[in-house]
Amino acid sequence: MWVRIEDIGEYEGKEVEIRGWLFNSRSSGKIHFILIRDGTGIIQGVVVKGEVPDDVFELADELTQESSIIVRGIVRKDPRAPGGYELGVKDIKLVHLSESYPITPKSHGVAFLMERRHLWIRSRKQNAILRIRAEVVNAAREFLNKEGFLLVDAPIFTPSACEGTTTLFEVDYFGRPAYLSQSGQLYMEAACMAFGKVYCLGPCFRAEKSKTRRHLTEFWQIEPEIAYADINDAMEVAERLVACVVERVLERRKRELEMLERNTEVLEKIKVPFPRISYDEAVKILKEKGMDIEWGEDFGAPHETELANSFSSPFFVHRYPKKIKAFYMKEDPDNPELSLSFDMLAPEGYGEIIGGGQREERLEKLKESIKRHNLPESAFEWYLDLRRYGTVPHAGFGLGIERTVAWICGIHHVREAIPFPRMLDTLYP
Ligand code: NSS
Question: For position 80, what pLDDT does the model report?
């Protein structure tokens, strides 16, 4: 019977078949130990001379790393084995003898590995990260579905910019310019007026021209949007969403977190509500720490890292100056220089994982803002319609999947938090 290594515990004492690849092997003359991986886990197969036909024993010795094999054997409990079980091998069928595999158990440089990303994802650590990524996405979707948010897909080809014109990817759309979506937000604003509470989940594209550990040119966002909601309502959903995602990963991906040697103390302590500080307070904190920042400036990576080192829980920074935020942000009624915007920053130095806020719902104010940002009003006529026909206060946010995964996994760079990263100098494989 063909079984998955992750389920092997259910088959103790039984004969099973594993279909996978040779991860590693060693030999002590009369016994060959073969580590078999099948994508769900790794198990050690023990091949003993005399207990298998001679040709199988020889084959076990000749197998190269990543050769594809179908192995039959008896499942035995063994507390010394990594997963707690090993396989007493009875037979091995060779599917393909791998050519010399470039990624060996010794360590390699990142550039070498990135060029072989299509193979690198087979390795244990990368496998664990991408499993956690899938858990994060599933958990976020289930949370929003349960909360009554409707999934509405946003387009990728768009006629206008959502997050500023400096990072737009322009494509030729039958002779007209079009842009790859930077965010599904504007479409979610239309959708929330149709369905109440909505979200989209999809790739976003930004021509980020600087190399940082936080920026990809193609990344994924999950973006909820709520009609009849204000900035506080959006922050509450955001913190409950993040707490739920973290709890779910701790519960279901313990093995992967261990594989990554993630210290989970901070993750285990996460509880809502998260701390909230205003932009004004954040600037004060940074100045006290001796950072170079003036009121009115946006935070750069070092500022975010510094702030994120001051907290042991995710936290919000809210009410940024209007002039450093996108055109759609609603003005703070208590101070026209500020916007009803917020970011959520992850602790342990990780920085921004969510951006969001309350949207400007008044037609005239929004038109003024579009003008101030030098955006072409004609491309936004449809968006302005939302303020002409039954406009209401509304708010939402976008959670960046890769930054969230990088933080939860405790990895340094977002490039490992997506299967096939796209960056300034990376378009292969
Ligand atoms: O630019 S954001 O701060 N906000 C928006 O795009 C809003 N339109 C979302 C909304 O309200 N619906 O980006 C949101 C998040 C940000 O916090 C990061 O986690 C992630 O998207 N993000 C990125 N991740 C990786 N690489 C890049 N370049 C990147 N840009 C944003």
Answer: 87
Ligand 1 in contact with 86 (CB < 6 A)? no
Distance CA 231, CA 151 (A): 21
Question: Residue 105 falls within a domain, yes or no?
Answer: no
pLDDT in tens, 223-239: 999 999 999 999 999 99
Find the DSSP H helices in 123-230.
124-146, 185-195
Residue 321 Cβ inside 6 Å of ligand 1? The answer reads no
Kindly report, residue by residue over 284-328, the tens digit of the pLDDT: 999 999 999 999 999 999 999 999 988 999 999 999 999 999 999
Judged against a pLDDT cut of 80, whether residue 82 lies above it is answered with: no
| 3-class SS of residue 421 | coil
Q: Is the CB of 317 under 6 A from ligand 1?
A: no
CATH of the domain at 83: 2.40.50.140
Domain membership of residue 28 as a residue range: 5-96
> Does residue 199 sit within a domain?
yes
Measure the CA–CA gap between 403 and 133, rounded to whole angstroms: 10
Per-residue confidence (pLDDT) for residue 180, from 0 to 100? 98
- Would you say the CB of residue 216 lies under 6 angstroms from ligand 1? yes
Q: Does residue 415's CB lie within 6 angstroms of at least one atom of ligand 1? A: no
Beta strands in 302-421 (DSSP E): 315-318, 331-332, 335-339, 341-346, 351-358, 394-400
**Are 87 and 125 members of one domain?**
no
**pTM of the shown model:** 0.97
Q: Which atom of ligand 1 approaches the CA of 208 most closely?
A: 28
Spacing, Cα 413 to ligand 1 middle (Å): 16
**Atom number of ligand 1 nearest to Cα 397:** 11
The protein residue with its alpha carbon nearest to ligand 1, atom 2, reads 355
| Residue 422: inside a domain | no
pLDDT reported for residue 385: 98
